[in-house]
Every structure is written in structure tokens, then in C-alpha cells.
Amino acid sequence: MPLSADGDPLFKPEFFWPYQKPLPDPDEEIEFSPSSPKEAMKPLDEAMILSDYFGEYITDATLIHKVDWQHNPRQTIDFPCILHEIDQEKSLDWRVDGITGIPGGPRMKSLLLESVNADDDQITRGEILCMCRIMNTCLCSRKYRAHQVSPVLLISFVGPRHARILLGHHDGTNLVIRQSKRFAFWEQNIPDWKILLRWWCSSAVGDTING
């Protein structure tokens, strides 16, 4: 999933188009705790730190700076499927920290936390399961009965203190997943936070009814 330095897609997006208006920097009152690879905690702990910070950034952008309120993530209790997996024996743990959709169709956006140190060569178990469960739930609902495709955008927070963007949909034959590079947040790294926010605040493109 190639992106420009500002987060613009260097490909033709099928279903999500990143926010094009100027975005604010994170408010200085939103606390960010820098770290380093030598000080890294468990992957899930690092993921929670990043997700909490990003959640506050979304709130600040939507409530204070008037970016559309629809981008505020909801709690997963509002979504009718299980969006977590915990297996202490196998050290598996992933969970969705917030979810919302783009009005007018089954395009869903989710914040994912996972207890793994990810790399750029593989998509994680949690990322795949999360996208598939969301797609299946939407396509099985009466609300979206007329739609053939249920695209999903993930902001995935993983160890060691990294995040990435994933776009997924099923084209009728294959599960299609695009993934960005990992963004490192040992420091505050505001330009990359703004890239994540641009994609989180995406608008709808493409045809989910005919696929």
C-alpha cells in the first residue's frame, strides 16, 4: 500500500479515500510518553498507549476542530460480533478498541490492538480475523442486504510501538488486503499521526452494491 510522504495513496483506492482538508496537530495537552526500543514494554501495553493517544487525537479533531463527528469510534459492545480473542496459553491477544462506519453503506473502520511484534512482511492473525468478522457481520445483516462488498479499514497498533493502516475487502473470489508500512512512535512523530488520522477520517469511494 504505497503512500506519499503526506499519506496520499500512490494507488487507486477501491473503497476509502483519505481526508483532504487540513488537519490540526494533536493538542499539546494530550499527553504522549516517549520511549525507545531498549525501554519497550510488552507489545499489547505499547499498543494500548498508542491507541489511547490516537483516540484522544480523534476526539480533539472532531469536537474542537470540527472534523466530522461521524469519525468518533464507538465501543465494540455496539457491534454484533465478538471482536477480541484471548488465549493466555498461546500468548494470543487481540481486541478492537473502537469501531465506526461511513454512512450510506457497509464501510467499517476499526482500531485494533494486538500482542505481537509485527513486521512489514506479514499480516497478523488478529488483523485478518478482525477484518473477516466485521465483513461477515455486515454482509449477513438485513441493513446491508443489497451490498456485495463490505470494506474494512483498520488502524492496527502492534509492538514494538508501531502502527499501520490496512484496507480489506472480499472481491467475490479473494480476500484482498492492502497494508501500509509500519509507522514508529518512539517519539511523538506528529506527521505520521496525521497520516493515520487522514485515513481514519476517510470518505467513501467505489461501489459496494455491485462490487
Automatic annotation (TrEMBL):
User: So which domain of life are we looking at?
Assistant: Eukaryota
Q: What is this protein called?
A: Uncharacterized protein
Which species expresses this protein natively?
Answer: Aspergillus awamori (Black koji mold)
